[in-house]
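pls design
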């Protein structure tokens, strides 16, 4: 199911629930009920709850957004380091050069096609991916430079392999959801409280009040969806964050 469809359903459902409860509540009120009798303290409490919840939503959005940006930087660093290995190995003997490039491409293909779906589903990397990267490291470290030119390229190649391994470890640490379950409990509970408090203000069935109530609930649904969508730093689909690999290693 498309994420846009999920968002549309969530916002429509939030509006429908809030408006339905409002209409049903209006029908059950007595004729002598006066909305102007709402105590001032309730209006103050409603305002304070809305402000506090807005701050919590803002912090949650900032957290998942920062984690998403950090994840993208990690992927770019890993892909660029592997690309540098593939390019700088040009100075090596043809047999060693071709073997290293083939092992790099094998690793990249496995990460994109096999490891990434596992990472998104389970929040962890695979042992085979680590083994394939170890093979690339062995190709570089076990090579014996034949002259000064190759010797000067040896250490930079090792540094790029180390950078790729560091980025891979960072990807493993950030593969899971950003927000723990207790934060989601607070976000969803806060949404219910924030929406529920609008009924303490005794809103009526006027078009203006129903419109504002619907937009308010739809906005909260949208923000919660935004947090949910960004909660996985590396996306919810393979194509969301693997662009750095596919751009540098096409085909």
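designed seq:
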């Amino acid at each position: 199911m498309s994420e846009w469809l999920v968002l549309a359903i969530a916002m429509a459902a939030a509006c429908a629930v809030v408006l339905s409860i409002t209409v049903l509540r209006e029908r059950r009120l007595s004729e002598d009920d006066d909305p102007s009798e709402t105590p001032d303290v309730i209006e103050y409490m409603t305002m304070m709850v809305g402000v506090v919840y807005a701050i919590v939503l803002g912090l949650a959005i900032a957290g998942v957004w920062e984690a998403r940006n950090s994840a993208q930087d990690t992927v770019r660093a890993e892909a660029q380091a592997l690309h540098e290995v593939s390019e700088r190995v040009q100075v090596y003997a043809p047999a060693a050069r071709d073997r290293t490039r083939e092992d790099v491409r094998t690793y990249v293909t496995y990460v994109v096609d096999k490891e990434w779906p596992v990472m998104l589903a389970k929040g962890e990397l695979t042992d085979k991916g680590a083994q394939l990267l170890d093979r690339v490291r062995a190709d570089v470290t076990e090579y014996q430079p034949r002259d000064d030119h190759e010797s000067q390229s040896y250490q930079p190649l090792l540094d790029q392999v180390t950078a790729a391994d560091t980025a891979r470890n960072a990807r493993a640490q950030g593969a899971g959801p950003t927000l723990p379950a207790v934060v989601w409990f607070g976000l969803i509970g806060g949404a219910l409280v924030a929406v529920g408090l609008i009924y303490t203000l005794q809103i009526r069935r006027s078009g203006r009040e129903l419109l504002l109530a619907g937009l308010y609930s739809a906005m909260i649904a949208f923000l919660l969806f935004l947090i949910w969508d960004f909660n996985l730093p590396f996306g919810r689909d393979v194509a969301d964050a693997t662009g750095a690999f596919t751009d540098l290693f096409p085909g």
